[in-house]
Write a structure and sequence with these properties.
This protein is of the alpha+beta class. It is built from 7 helices and 7 strands, in the order ααββαββαββαβαα. The strands form 2 sheets. A 4-stranded antiparallel beta sheet has the order 1-2-4-3, covered by helices on one side. Strands 5-6-7 form a 3-stranded antiparallel beta sheet.
């Protein structure tokens, strides 16, 4: 799928989405199937929760080059420049860096925006088990309690059932917070929210058989 087709599909899905009924058939593009994704500013706003900020740019780092390249490709489709590079010769860390101006003045407006935002948040701060034999779970973690609470509220508004926010261990880290998506909403989350991250997308598809 080329940039033009990816953006066209994304715009058709995101146009005038005013209630959740319009979103039930919405399924994000699978990373494994498409080189390009319909990247939106809403997704990027969620994804930068794992980013670092300088005066003019935002950096998102990963151990695998595939995800930074995915972001770069999506930004190119939106008409923005970005750079992917390896951070130091000895470190196996890859970075995609782009201008802060891309998100200047942007805010979430529609339910589609919220879905894209949560997907970006999940790709940066969400977790699923890598071991296929482990009990399946989906959770979000964050040190900013208010931010995490706002995300949980957003998911519940989108029809995804979530557990309570809790601290796993006060002794280990008193400022670490997380919440789980309830088992009954795993499939709904996988279909409605999904993932663009190469690893998480694959795990969701395999474990939920979608």
């Amino acid at each position: 799928m080329g940039c033009e087709n990816a953006l066209s599909a994304d715009n058709q899905q995101g146009t005038q989405v005013n209630n959740l009924g319009h979103l039930r058939d919405y399924k994000p593009n699978s990373f494994s199937q498409n080189k390009h994704i319909g990247l939106t500013r809403a997704y990027l706003l969620g994804a930068i929760h794992d980013g670092t900020f300088s005066k003019y740019t935002i950096r998102i780092s990963q151990k695998d080059k595939a995800y930074p390249e995915l972001i770069r490709s999506g930004l190119q489709c939106l008409g923005f420049r970005s750079w992917v590079y390896k951070e130091g010769e000895a470190r196996n860390v890859y970075v995609v860096e782009f201008s802060k101006k891309i998100l200047n003045g942007y805010s979430l407006k529609s339910n589609k925006d919220k879905v894209d935002y949560v997907r970006g948040y999940f790709d940066s701060e969400g977790s699923v088990p890598r071991n296929s034999k482990s009990r399946f779970y989906i959770y979000f973690c964050q040190k900013d309690l208010n931010d995490l609470n706002a995300l949980r509220t957003m998911l519940i508004d989108l029809g995804i059932s979530c557990g309570k926010i809790h601290n796993p261990s006060w002794k280990v880290d008193p400022d670490y917070w997380r919440f789980f998506v309830l088992t009954k909403s795993h499939r709904e989350f996988s279909i409605l929210i999904g993932s663009y991250h190469p690893d998480k997308s694959k795990i969701l598809c395999e474990r939920m058989k979608i």
